[in-house]
């Protein structure tokens, strides 16, 4: 029994981590809801995992009676269609690999039930790309436990569109693709995480609350009602993608920054053009936008850029040499508005926190077995 358990632990329990990514050319709108195929390409920056990451443990065992999943300490419905799409595709590839005779012991767990435990170390569903990190981590972990290799971003995409970009580190583009089956809708690395070491990212958390309108329903309404969204996808984004890729490769911060801010603004303009309109930004978000423009105007050069996903939390890009002053400016901005005289939003930003990050790597395999989130009997550990 002890020998059998060790074999299961070695080959059929795996823990991995995956990063958050921040899109600088935004994805908003699908041409196929089931396969999660986008109406435009997008480009993102992968954030370092030292502060923001998802950790996932996957285990298979013949002793498990049913498939189960726990997210942030709570058991969730493993029959969710997007979860099942990822699990089904990884298991299909594992069966194919075994049939082709190229698999080892990793696929021996195929007939067995699977237990999954996943934890984010940052607010879930508050516009910090938690689903991207979560599904990237899930797919990467499942691939490791079943011995599946090769291109995995198209599988992660079926869980959450932007998850495909979290399958790589550095600067990543999600190519929208043209095929109806989605096989050409994949992520590709534009530049590795070592490419631009001076780039820094500040994540300002003005609200850790769940956003009122989720991305899935929001973008579906935008596709159905926004004329601006179609113009953006067909006319604006193709050229902007080329410019952004060139700016990244040249490490041209002023161009990178301007494109980032313009694209963020246009994304939120499409949300306003949606009927009924969608409001992801709050008054704090608008103040941060004004602050960044005033900061750049003061120096008569672009030293900082903001970007907002589907939520009120600001992501600010800058270079390392500007961080001490920029952080000071932001802290002064916060203290300038007493919470009692400026309403609930300013009270939140006084209590907010920020992350200071660099560009980081893609998903990582955790070799230390003490970091598993599941015990040897397949149940979540209390520390999870």
TrEMBL record:
Recorded catalytic activity of this chain's protein: (R)-5-diphosphomevalonate + ATP = isopentenyl diphosphate + ADP + phosphate + CO2
GO molecular function: ATP binding; diphosphomevalonate decarboxylase activity
Pfam families linked: MDD_C, MVD-like_N
Residues in Mvd1 C-terminal domain copies: 201-348
Coiled coil: none
Gene Ontology cellular component list: cytosol
Top-level taxon of origin: Eukaryota
NCBIfam families named among the record's database cross-references: mevDPdecarb
Protein name per Swiss-Prot or TrEMBL: Diphosphomevalonate decarboxylase
Organism: Gouania willdenowi
């Amino acid at each position: 029994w002890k020998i059998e358990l060790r074999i299961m632990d070695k080959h059929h329990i795996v823990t991995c981590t995956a990063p958050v990514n921040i899109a600088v050319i935004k994805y908003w709108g699908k041409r196929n809801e089931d396969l999660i195929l986008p109406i435009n390409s997008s480009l993102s920056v992968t954030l370092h995992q030292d502060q923001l990451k998802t950790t996932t443990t996957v285990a298979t065992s013949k002793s498990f009676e049913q498939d189960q999943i726990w997210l942030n300490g709570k058991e969730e419905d493993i029959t969710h269609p997007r979860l099942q799409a990822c699990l089904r595709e990884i298991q299909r590839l594992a069966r194919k690999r075994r049939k082709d005779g190229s698999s080892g012991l990793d696929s021996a767990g195929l007939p067995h039930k699977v237990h999954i435990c996943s934890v984010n170390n940052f607010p879930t569903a508050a516009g910090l790309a938690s689903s991207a990190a979560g599904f990237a981590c899930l797919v990467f972990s499942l691939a490791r436990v079943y011995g599946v290799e090769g291109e995995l971003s198209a599988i992660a995409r079926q869980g959450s569109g932007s998850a495909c970009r979290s399958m790589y580190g550095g600067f990543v583009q999600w190519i929208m693709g043209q095929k109806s089956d989605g096989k050409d809708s994949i992520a590709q690395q534009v530049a590795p995480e070592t490419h631009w070491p001076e780039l820094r990212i500040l994540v300002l958390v003005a609200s850790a609350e769940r956003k009122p309108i989720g991305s899935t329903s929001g973008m579906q309404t935008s596709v159905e009602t926004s004329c601006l969204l179609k113009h953006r996808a067909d006319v604006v984004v193709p050229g902007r993608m080329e410019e952004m890729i060139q700016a990244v490769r040249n490490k041209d911060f002023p161009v990178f920054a301007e494109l980032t801010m313009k694209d963020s603004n246009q994304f939120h303009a499409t949300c306003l053009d949606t009927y009924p309109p969608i409001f992801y930004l709050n008054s704090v978000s608008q103040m941060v936008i004004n602050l960044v423009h005033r900061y750049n105007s003061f120096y008569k050069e672009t030293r900082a850029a903001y970007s907002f996903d589907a939520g009120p939390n600001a992501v600010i890009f800058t270079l390392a040499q500007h961080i001490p002053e920029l952080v000071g400016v932001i802290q002064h901005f916060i203290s300038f508005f007493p919470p009692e005289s400026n309403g609930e939003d300013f009270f939140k930003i006084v209590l907010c926190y920020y992350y200071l990050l660099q560009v980081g790597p893609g998903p990582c395999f955790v070799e230390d077995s003490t970091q598993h989130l599941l015990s040897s009997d397949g149940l979540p550990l209390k520390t999870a």
